[in-house]
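Hi everyone,

Forwarding the result from last night's run.
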Amino acid sequence: MLIRKPADIPSSEITPRSVYQNRRRFIGMLSAGAAACALDPTLLAAASPRGVQPGRRSQEDELTPYEAVTTYNNFYEFGYNKDDPAREAHRLRVRPWSVEISGHVSKPGTYDLEDFLAPHTMEDRVYRLRCVEGWSMVIPWRGFPLADLVRRVEPTSRARYVDFITLFAPDQMPAQRQPTLDWPYNEGLRLDEALNPLSFLATGVYGEDLPNQNGAPLRLVVPWKYGFKSIKSIVAIRFVEEQPVTTWMKAAPHEYGFYANVNPNVDHPRWSQATERRIGELRRRDTLMFNGYAEQVAHMYAGMDLRRFY
């Protein structure tokens, strides 16, 4: 099997589904679920030498119940309510699946999913997800570093950005039949962001394959950014010279910039980003700069105006 749990992330650190299914935190999530939001992750363990060690994870960083993770989602291809993806995503056919690699790379091509995953050692990582509209989750992901893929396809000196594209299949994704966004969904990273050890291609949650509503069979997770950067159901990855114009930049450029770095000091035009609420809780907590990973990523933005480049 390709699945591996590193020695420093014992299975005992990943809460069994049988334990968390009936937690009061899930009941709290149901009562508190009226607040809308988009997903975005922050790594808590093992992806970096400075990551929080699992044994030191505080009570405040308990894992979010599986039911909440898989029923409270943003995946606009299936609808705009948080429960639409779980209800509609059964339409998505995730096998066979291929990913097209193109642009400024030495090894372009269309890769069958199994061939695409085969060279990579799979591992579990725990991320705190921070939504642009104010809620967050803590999720154990399975997958592999994005940097592994980038190095495998050998970008040329002209590759400065990585552009990701979601499946376009209106017969499977009913909301794509409406021109609410410029389909297919696309997102992008600078090449150095893609190579950062925290950037991750996820293939599963809680030790299982990704549910359709969570972005099966392959999605991006970028821990220090707001969730809309973590594009789901990826079918194409392009290495380009110019900064991509991403889906939300086209839809609402005054609200969503290219970088989408978590910055509590820059309000969204319609709400504050200074605080967030963990799903399952009623209280709000302070939002951390770069979702708490400034040590790992702040150097990539040295000298940039982080109010302008939002």
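The chain has nine helices and 13 strands.

Cheers,
N.
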